[in-house]
Amino acid sequence: MKEPLDILSDIKSVDAPPFLWTRIQQKIKVEQENRLSPAFAYLLGLSFLLLIGLNVLVITQKTHHAASESNNIAQTMNLLPNNELYK
Amino acid sequence: MALCRHIYQSQNPLSFEEIYQLHKRKVYNLALQYTQNQEDAQEITQDVFVSVCQSMHTFKQNAQLSTWIYRITINQSLDFIKAKQRKKRFAFLTSLFAPDSPKMKHDIATFDHPGALLEQKEALENIFFHLNQLPDNQKTVIILTKIEQKSQAETAEIMELSIKAVESLLQRAKNNLKKKLTTNEG
């Protein structure tokens, strides 16, 4: 008795359309043109890291500078830099 | 296509064009079994060979080139189907907000399999309707064994499973498919 799925083996193999090769070449060409070169990608990444590093440096320096400035002001005006009011 | 040519010759004596000529029929027909639609199969075939060109350097030569290309085709076909289903869902949702927009018309899947004999078209359309509802691995095992006529050993190599696993998967797939076909008839 024929199995219902046996009909699947009757499906014929067909030829791929001839224009596919041209389309594939075109797609590959477009992909290559849009691709970022590895050197450019590394340069971009490095620049980004440098920018972040510089920002971090500027921020930490500013914080340190602000802290030392307030200490100078306190010293000049003989303000106690602590909570000991009755020393 | 300097990139394809360059990757190619360092690993394999065949040029990319020769590989294409050798495998285009297999790839196209396998894509047809997944989509049952010529346009979609053409799209998948192009994507497969672009992928082959781009990833030729990753081919480890511990399997046959044809097996590797088969795997790429299966993955591309399944991804294509999932992407199409996502688009359909999105189209349905957006049609709720813009029902008259021509872009929101549902993309009705057409059974356009050129390998189907005319007298069997209706029966095949029915079988494929239910086959498309099976899980990916069950669908793949049916396509490879029943349509592509691969042996269980060849199927196991393509799917990277043991022969026993393929046997069990095939049995499950056949049972599920028969159940669906019987329910449909009843």
Structure report:
With 87 residues, chain A is mostly helical. Chain A is 62% helix and 0% strand. Chain A contains 2 helices and no strands. Chain A has helices at 20-34, 38-76. In chain A, 6% of the residues are buried. The model of chain A has no long low-confidence stretch (mean pLDDT 83). Chain B has 186 residues and is mainly alpha-helical. Chain B has 8 helices and no strands. Chain B has helices spanning 2-11, 16-35, 38-55, 65-97, 121-131, 136-147, 152-159, 163-185. In chain B, helix 2 packs across helix 3 (38-55) and helix 2 packs across helix 4 (65-97). The longest helix of chain B is centred in the middle third of the chain and has 33 residues, at 65-97. Mean pLDDT of chain B is 85; it is low at 103-108. Chain A binds chain B through residues 4-5, 7-17, 20-21, 23-25, 27-29, 31-32, and chain B through 1, 3-4, 17, 20, 24-25, 27-29, 32-33, 42, 45-47, 49-50, 53-54, 113-117, 120, 123-124, 127, 142, 146-147, 149, 174, 177-178, 181.
Q: Briefly, what is this?
A:
With 87 residues, chain A is an all-alpha fold. Chain A is 62% helix and 0% strand. Chain A is elongated and about 105 Å long.
Helix percentage of chain B = over 70%
Q: What is the average per-residue confidence, as pLDDT of chain B, rounded to a whole number?
A: 85
Low-confidence parts of chain A lasting 5 or more residues at pLDDT below 50? Answer: none
Estimate the strand proportion of chain A.
under 5%
Q: Specify the structural class of chain B.
A: mainly alpha
Oligomer: heterodimer
Low-confidence stretches of chain B: 103-108
